[in-house]
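Quick one, tokens below:
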């Protein structure tokens, strides 16, 4: 399943979710923590929800937000890749109507020599076919 199949398809969008977490490989990151900014796109058919105006025909943004919060503020991971992976997999497992999820995890405060907005990772995961 290629990404092109998702162009012009329905999705839920969560942008700029901010959390204080303890992810990273450096001891000070694990001890002091830092801010993380996370974006999520979740692809699913929203046509029934659009017709019915009923929350039961979609996935609540707050359900996805809770997953992101639990991972971001949860047990320390060494890599942002692990944080993104946990968010994506948990989202797909808890919401079978979601066919794909994109997760972007950003660290705006990174000790690098230069001016940056953030450094981070972005992953795209698809629901496994049975």
């Amino acid at each position: 399943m290629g990404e092109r199949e998702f162009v012009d398809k329905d999705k839920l969008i969560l942008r700029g979710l901010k959390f204080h977490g303890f992810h990273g490989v450096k001891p000070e990151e694990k001890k002091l923590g830092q801010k993380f900014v996370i974006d999520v796109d979740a692809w699913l058919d929203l046509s029934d929800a659009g017709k019915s105006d009923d929350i039961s025909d979609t996935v609540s943004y707050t359900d996805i937000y809770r997953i992101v919060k639990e991972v971001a503020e949860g047990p320390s991971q060494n890599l942002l890749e692990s944080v993104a992976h946990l968010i994506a997999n948990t989202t797909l497992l808890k919401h079978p109507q979601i066919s794909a999820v994109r997760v972007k995890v950003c660290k705006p405060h990174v000790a690098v020599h230069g001016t940056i907005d953030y450094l981070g990772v972005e992953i795209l995961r698809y629901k496994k076919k049975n």
